[in-house]
Amino acid sequence: MSTYKNQLSFAQEKDQNDPLRKYREEFYFPTFHEKEVVYFTGNSLGLQPKRTQSYIQKELDDWAKWGVEGHFHANNPWFSYHELLTSKAAKVVGALDKEVVITHSLTTNLHLLMVSFYRPTKKRYKILCEAKAFPSDQYALESQVKFHGYEPDDAIIEIAPRAGEHLIRLEDILTTIERNKDEISLIMIGGMNYYTGQLFDMKTITEAGHKIGAIVGFDLAHAAGNVELNLHDWGVDFAAWCTYKYMNSSPGGVSGMFVHERHANDASLPRFAGWWGHNKDVRFKMEKGFVPMEGAEGWQLSNAPILGMAAHLASLDIFDEVGMKAISKKRNDLTAYLEFIIEEVSKASSKAEFEIITPSNPDERGAQLSILAHGQGKALFDIMSELGVVADWREPNVIRIAPAPLYNSYEDVWRFGQILAEAIQ
């Protein structure tokens, strides 16, 4: 970090040498504030790509022209529209095309996957997850175990940080897996914790889970489009992710689903079926008897939400142009510069001490830094908002900031430091 400088000229020089700098112009920045905002909340909702409107308008025009016939005669026929997204999404998460489908919403997909992969027995019925998982995951797991007749306090094993620590140690995850090896049916963890920004070692966790005979799945809401993933090579059984955070695909946009190829043709897996997951060659014969499509597509339920998928395709095309390696390279540097700036402001202040609870190791984090502002708290966050920072407050006492490499700049980071210093005063 000694190579960084808390200077506007330094930040501007970094931006001039940034190979991704032109993509900042591909996005709309919010205009609600009297000042130009520092938008550091792509971990909650990514900015709108400027091309999104034309992608959606194309489908609106075809809807106007074709009506129902657009399913087969639109420029991009709606019958197979989701297939336009598959290969590009698969690259983002490190999967084979047949292992990925874009459909539904995140928690819906998690439930559908757990119907298939949480198959408790009298002896092996427990689910292992991280403590302080995102609430939707907590509620999904609670309702799944109750659906099977178990009590959450008994059937759900939560791994928490040690006393006085903020992060969950990998060794504690592995020890807990081994300690409960005869009872764990499913390991279902957020690949990146929403609160701390900690990125878990999914490869090692998957291997440990499989060693004891458990199924392993991940919620990748904060990881997809943020960090490089290799779901296929890691052997993960299933995963799901939203697309509206780092993947900039509209509020509440469609979700991605991954099912490893070893499960691709297993028609014996229980599932809640719908006609869009049925063999598409005979789908319109309207016959009884569900025959799933091969791969992740077999978990689809209903017709594709075309307008939401068009918004996602607009963003995916940008990801396809840039690639996750280039995104990750800038993310590491941009986040490290943000860490440096925060520490510089903290050292210069007598009124606040900032503690970054996100791991300092770039291999254990993405774009997000979670900050504890000792002696300040929510009041500081509110002042920062008034001064033009769009960030994120999470109870009880964390400010989350996430510079997205596709549209945030080094000057954004420097400006954030200036506003943070002003807000403290």
Describe this structure in words.
The chain is of the alpha/beta class and 425 residues long. The protein has two domains: 8-49 and 323-424, Aspartate Aminotransferase, domain 1, CATH 3.90.1150.10; 81-322, Aspartate Aminotransferase, domain 2 (3-Layer(aba) Sandwich). The protein is built from 14 helices and 13 strands. The protein has helices spanning 8-16, 52-66, 70-73, 83-93, 106-117, 135-147, 152-155, 170-179, 202-211, 231-234, 306-322, 324-348, 378-386, 410-424, and strands spanning 38-39, 100-102, 126-130, 156-159, 184-190, 215-219, 238-242, 255-259, 353-356, 369-374, 389-390, 392-394, 398-401. A seven-stranded mixed sheet has the order 2-8-7-6-5-3-4, with helices on both faces. Strands 9-10-13-12 form a four-stranded antiparallel sheet, with helices on one face.
Give me the secondary-structure topology.
Blueprint: H1 8-16, E1 38-39, H2 52-66, H3 70-73, H4 83-93, E2 100-102, H5 106-117, E3 126-130, H6 135-147, H7 152-155, E4 156-159, H8 170-179, E5 184-190, H9 202-211, E6 215-219, H10 231-234, E7 238-242, E8 255-259, H11 306-322, H12 324-348, E9 353-356, E10 369-374, H13 378-386, E11 389-390, E12 392-394, E13 398-401, H14 410-424
Parallel strand pairs: 1-11, 3-4, 3-5, 5-6, 6-7
Antiparallel strand pairs: 2-8, 7-8, 9-10, 10-13, 12-13
Helix pairs in contact: 1-14, 2-11, 4-11, 5-6, 12-14, 13-14
Residue ranges: pLDDT <50 for 5 or more in a row? none
Instruction: Give a quick account of the main beta sheet: strands, pairing sense, barrel closure.
Output: 7 strands, mixed
Give the overall shape, derived from the CA principal axes: globular
Topology, number of strands: 13
Query: How do the strands of the widest beta sheet line up side by side?
Result: 2-8-7-6-5-3-4
Radius of gyration: 22 Å
Query: How far from one another are the termini?
Result: 26 Å
CATH class of the largest domain: Alpha Beta
Secondary structure tally, helices: 14
CATH architecture of the largest domain, by name, is 3-Layer(aba) Sandwich
Please name the fourth-level CATH homologous superfamily of the largest domain: Type I PLP-dependent aspartate aminotransferase-like (Major domain)
- Please tell me the total number of domains: 2
CATH topology title of the largest domain = Aspartate Aminotransferase, domain 2
Strand content: 5-15%
SS content category: alpha/beta
Rounded average pLDDT: 95
- What is the helix fraction of residues, given as a range? 25-40%
Order of helices and strands: HEHHHEHEHHEHEHEHEEHHEEHEEEH
